[in-house]
Amino acid sequence: MDTKSENRSFGGTQGVYTHASKTTGTDMTFALFLPEEAATGPVPLLWFLSGLTCTHENAMTKAGAQQWCAAQGLGLVFPDTSPRGEDVANDEAYDMGQGAGFYIDATQDPWSPHFRMETYITKDLTDLLAAEFPLDMDRQAITGHSMGGHGALTLAMKNPGRFRSVSAFSPICHPTASDWGRKQFTGYLGKDADWTGHDATLLMKDRGFEGPVLVDQGTDDQFYDLLNTGDFAAACAARRQDATVRLHKGYDHSYFFISTFMEEHVDFHAQALYA
Amino acid sequence: MDTKSENRSFGGTQGVYTHASKTTGTDMTFALFLPEEAATGPVPLLWFLSGLTCTHENAMTKAGAQQWCAAQGLGLVFPDTSPRGEDVANDEAYDMGQGAGFYIDATQDPWSPHFRMETYITKDLTDLLAAEFPLDMDRQAITGHSMGGHGALTLAMKNPGRFRSVSAFSPICHPTASDWGRKQFTGYLGKDADWTGHDATLLMKDRGFEGPVLVDQGTDDQFYDLLNTGDFAAACAARRQDATVRLHKGYDHSYFFISTFMEEHVDFHAQALYA
């Protein structure tokens, strides 16, 4: 693992690191915030999965999360959104290929050799974080934005016992019913594959989540009709899921929305992580 | 208007009053809490509409709302849930007739002479409160429980500009799709009447609400399947309504649930009323 940068931030350290991932077959970059408390012992870990076109950097610099994680004594990791490199397949579209890994393991050419973000997140990066940093891996929670909200909700439900709480900002809630989802699942998994295990609304209907769920969505989101928040809310109600879904008037899809409600998300996770 | 009782409460006064209603053709009883601030000028008004079998008294004694309305300087009125008396039609069932007015105006015999709770609330009681008490009627908000949650949501959407915010505890969200609704609408309005204007989910789809909406629902509610929270949440999402829907793990349909979240509802309304 190489340290690319470390900066003091809210009494803790904001670092950026690179490591070789066996799963993606590439070098991968991630950012990790550690609060002051990490100097004296392991701290709980919150994951933030980013959206289409993002790297590890967007949320690190624009979500305003460090101040609240510092206040709650939480570590916060920002993974990249896909493998990258000249030898890695790509697509001209912003929503396919590099920057658009969708937090699943591709099974179709040309994507399958490198696009295995689900295993990368849940195995490679998890193992590295546990080995290299003072993190209490028995206390993990997960959040994310848009494609990363899809990632957070689906990884939380796919891995029972792994995350104590899950939240999302403007998540892709029902990808099998959206152009943000069908296109990528067709490319990465194939049109005849079973997609149901990668769809938050279908996972909620099928199994739910053992902890609390929080979803925030702006009503002026320019991608509103791709996100299907109502389908997920209805699935939560049908499941009797411990869940809060909030529709915020006038907010859009940007980091200005995310940063506005970040404090409440961090507090939500802290309540579960310290319970 | 007759004063039945007045008790000091949280620095203000909890009163119970009776008046003759032209609309119901009966004497009607209601409870009104006025905070300390009402001694020196008009205060905003929050309505609490109660559920099946309740009178003005249940929420007054069990919801724990006075402390939070005192803290926020709000008046709080608890109307009765139906006309009452020996000359008023009734039904042996707990969910029909006296104690079950459903906040609509009946058009069918034997109910139509007295069961006109919609007009009673929005006209008779409103006019009386404005005339007799130091209330700022330009600042009104509304909440309620179960059948009263249905009442709050529907009256808020039926009367644009009247209420600045609306919330509900375990509301009947979709009465035209529930045994709590179809039975009563059949009796009060007739099976061939147009019920759509009295259904919160359908009103949300059709017109929405100009202010914020908050709905709380317990996942262990013994009447969960009669309430259709998911339908209302999906309608809010489809409408891009400023709305929060929360599903609270382990809570049931009782006043123990209501009192747990009352502070947040009063604060929610205070934010809208003082904006």
From TrEMBL, chains A, B:
Organism the protein comes from: Loktanella atrilutea
Coiled-coil parts of chain: none
Enzyme type, top EC level: hydrolase
Name this protein carries in UniProt: S-formylglutathione hydrolase
Alphabetical GO biological process terms: formaldehyde catabolic process
Function statement: Serine hydrolase involved in the detoxification of formaldehyde.
EC number: 3.1.2.12
GO molecular function, one term: carboxylic ester hydrolase activity
Catalytic activity of the protein: S-formylglutathione + H2O = formate + glutathione + H(+)
A family per Pfam: Esterase
Lineage: Bacteria, Pseudomonadati, Pseudomonadota, Alphaproteobacteria, Rhodobacterales
Membership in a protein family: Belongs to the esterase D family.
Keywords in alphabetical order: Hydrolase, Serine esterase
Superkingdom as given in the UniProt entry: Bacteria
Keyword tRNA-binding: no
Active site residues per record: S146, D221, H253
NCBIfam families: fghA_ester_D
GO cellular component: cytosol
